[in-house]
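Course exercise 7: structure representation. Students receive a sequence record and must write out the corresponding structure in token form. The form below is the worked example handed out in class, using Protein HGH1 homolog (341 residues). Read each field label carefully; the graders check that inputs and outputs are placed in the correct fields and that the protein name is recorded exactly as given.

STUDENT ID: A-19
EXERCISE PROTEIN: Protein HGH1 homolog
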Amino acid sequence: MAKPSMVTELAQFITPSIRADVRHTAIAYLVNEAYVNESKEIFIDEDFKITKALVDVFENLRGERVDILTIFTNLTAVSGVISNYLIVHSKLPKILIECVMTSNPWATASSKLLANLSRQFPDKIYEIFKNEWPNFIDEIMNMLLKTKLEECSDYLGCVLLNFSQLKNFRKEITHETLSLFYPLLRQNDKQGRRRLAMDILRNFTFDDDLHGQLLEESDDFLTAILTLIADENYDLDDEEQSKLPIDLQYYEGKRVTDEILIEKIVETLYQLCATKIGRNILRSKGVYPLLREFDKATSDSKATLMLADQENTLHALIGVLIRYEEEMEIPDDLHSIRNLE
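STUDENT ANSWER:
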């Protein structure tokens, strides 16, 4: 009789029915294995035998969940194959969402694993979220604005960021839902969350079909972004002030100084210039004079806001807005300059 493989021998000790100390020793061994990237094959071999065993224990024994969550978190950080198996062939994502919703002791570890899974397969996890947690956006945004379960909230913010890469997620978001992100931009106690909100809003601007919805229905989206770079010391005349969104006219406040955040803001505005409707609205809302003053105020900064081709993004943005549409030699019926060949 052939000697059982290491995978088979190890898997027999990872069952709900085996003696607890034996099972715990086997799982503890796998915790160490999961830290080593080269060792992930042991979790895939023999049709995911060990992974199946871990899932079975996780679903049936709460006492082993901490170590198993550690194993799966380390594995899903590097393996799309294992991530897909856990999503498609187990109840794990549903259990993780339940842990977060009920704020149980595994909530933070669960949210971390969900962040990994949603990074690997955002579309699949998004569908599970919609089914298991229908109002997840509202509740996660509420968590991000509070101090309870901070680490858990940060990981859930990453889940939303991963979802924002999906066209169907962006399409299903309404103005009312989008407005939930604006308070995160206004607060300045948690810089990381402010950047997160900006990243999510920026992802919406990569979708040219949304530019009209983002900019035409109200000034809220544009105001939320421009407020961050507005300053009471800008030299804007009355005509320039009158073109700005109402909440920015004769603004009393200071611009942000976080250079990483500023880069995200400038890129977001630049993406809106991909469409004619975006360019025209930015011009009509007085964005150029605001950027002109912002450029003056930051001219001594050591930060360089560069595109991949090393062109200065801020100056490129100003260069687009200062020109009339006919000067740009763009076909009138072209929906987006991204379509230029």
